[in-house]
């Protein structure tokens, strides 16, 4: 990155979602990466990728969850 943009200054701020939205809104940050699904319409946004995941647990802990076999998962 230093070779492609030697004048670029990059600072990383570990902000919670709400704090990141506020920082974008008041100009303290130029960009935020993360799950900002509740961002106001005044902010421009773009989905970088979509990922799915699986939660596994005991049937007694997840009584409403569908049953999935290993064959169906693979």
Automatic annotation (TrEMBL):
InterPro entries: LysR_subst-bd. Residues 2-56 form the LysR substrate-binding domain. This is LysR substrate-binding domain-containing protein. It comes from Peteryoungia aggregata LMG 23059. The lineage of its organism: Bacteria, Pseudomonadati, Pseudomonadota, Alphaproteobacteria, Hyphomicrobiales.
